[in-house]
User: Fold Acyl-CoA dehydrogenase family protein from Streptomyces tendae.
Amino acid sequence: MAASPKLPAFDPADPLGIDDLLEPEDLAVRDTVRSWAADRVLPYVADWYESGELPGIRELARELGSIGALGMSLDGYGCAGASAVQYGLACLELEAADSGIRSLVSVQGSLAMYAIHRFGSEAQKQTWLPRMAAGEVIGCFGLTEPDHGSDPANMRTHAKRDAGGDWVLNGRKMWITNGSVAGVAVVWAQTEEGIRGFVVPTDTAGFSAPEIKHKWSLRASVTSELVLDDVRLPADAVLPEVTGLRGPLSCLSHARYGIVWGSMGAARSSFEAAVEYAKSREQFGRPIGGFQLTQAKLADMAVELHKGILLAHHLGRRMDAGRLRPEQVSFGKLNNVREAIDICRTARTILGANGISLEYPVMRHATNLESVLTYEGTVEMHQLVLGKALTGLDAFR
Assistant:
């Protein structure tokens, strides 16, 4: 009788052996981004969060460009051409450091660069993408408005042609990541032809981006309003390859995919903090990790964390195969962000009062995830997307 093969040792950091699904190139991308975040973000992010600032954001962008993290899943124009799984792994490691850093990368690559790459003219691509991939130019994405978040079809920002063929934009956009530091904005507006996207250099007269203060979430991130007062653009500023909501919604789907992975990074960081604390914190004469109730919490957290990572990996493989549907992205975002928040809250209970301290990452991740839960589609919107897909009945209106 043949001997049974020797089983690999159980790895508490990878209890399902998910790393076995990754190629050496995948692991190299993950390790590069993890090392960068450990060196350039983790030692400082608590202070950035407490002060509500992201100092040196332009330098950070250039460094992220140098490791290929900006627009990394796009091809050509200086972009890395990485796989969807590799991009997802990068998002996980960035958000394990802080959601604000992942948001910087996501808005740059999955929204602003993606819009230009997919829908722009060759001249627009050549003008902007190489510099954005290098982090020399930061981009932002103007869709959400003060009165229109989940209902972008009724946006009030509008663009009109004048007699000479120029476009003139007027309107407001709200909650725009990177807005006040961006060199270029992709702005969506109503036109006589339908909703169109415009590539707007931020030094154009009439454009301003006042920064939004007094945030209790995503504090280590630049968030702005975009103000467009008679912003005059040449005829070729419009993205030529798309008309209607299909343009911005396809960009959002790409960004949501990154969130599916990124939210698990925040969850992993909080889970790891809880495990280490449970092994060292003593009550009643022994570490609290030796008590049944604490172990039950840790086991449940581990199950949801690694189920979420498996889901993200599955969606990444589907994206790489060209088979990922928007409804499946909604599935991933809805599940993973909700579970990430629950993991952070449970981790906070294990840390007790220390859980609210910035000496630990847990409360910072929990408050950040409250924003992640809302942006790129609220819980309710993704529930309705899935509800329509399951029943064939539209409950949005």
About this structure: The chain has three domains: 18-133, 139-243, 247-391. The mean pLDDT is 96.
